[in-house]
Please model this.
Amino acid sequence: MTAIPTILLNNGVTIPQLGFGVFQVEPDATTRIVLEALEVGYRHIDTAQMYGNEAGVGAAIAASGIARDEIFVTSKLNNNAHAPDAARAATERSVEALGGPMDLYLIHWPMPAVGSYVDTWRLMEEFYAAGASRAIGVSNFQIAHLERLLAAADVVPAANQIEVHPYLRQDSLRAFNEQNGIVTQAWSPIGQGDVLQDHVLVELAAQTGRSVAQVVLRWHIQRGDVIFPKSNHRGRMAENLDIFDFQLTAEQMARIDGLNRDTRRGPDPDEFNLIPD
Model:
């Protein structure tokens, strides 16, 4: 079993630095795929109410034979559940679907045009105090969103899950997170595949005898990000996990840093205000 490093959150909870993401995994395939990931060695699963597959994650955990306290589960509050009654009902459904309290529960998007995320954070603090999750945090929050939230918060978010990859380093936001005791989680760590043909990364893969994906994931690990690549293929699951027996040099890290283009693959958090039906 691969030894995955852990990172200490600001409330003393430890989180595995590498996990398995289930974004865009079909609900009817989720149990099978998550079971495979657990068999390969993953012990951190990242899901969300918006993904529609929490029940499959919960079923896989129940069927795995692995003690629940050995698996770290992250989920996220849906954009249509920021109002108090909706948030409470959604949280109860997540706890039930996942087979018990979450380990980390995030506000999925700030939706700044809606303007409710500070009030929603107070609800998250309520859920945390009630034991629905061992830690709470946010996702896709920019510096301005965090500044507004921190000014009103009793509990500092434990994590901020944001888009990060070699073409979008997000150094200023990552630094702000660190200054405030907030762990950065990187979604889309390989830019949804956009970076895999980059000639610099292909060259570094040849130098290290690793795949391009492994080089990029290792770059994240050495920067201190929490990451959760996804794959429906067992071989790639294992490959993505096999990144803890080599190091990138300072020069190699700098070459990857130099690829930044400030290019997003996902929505801009300052503009994304979608409320699903």
User: Anything to note?
Assistant: The mean pLDDT is 97. The radius of gyration is 18 Å.
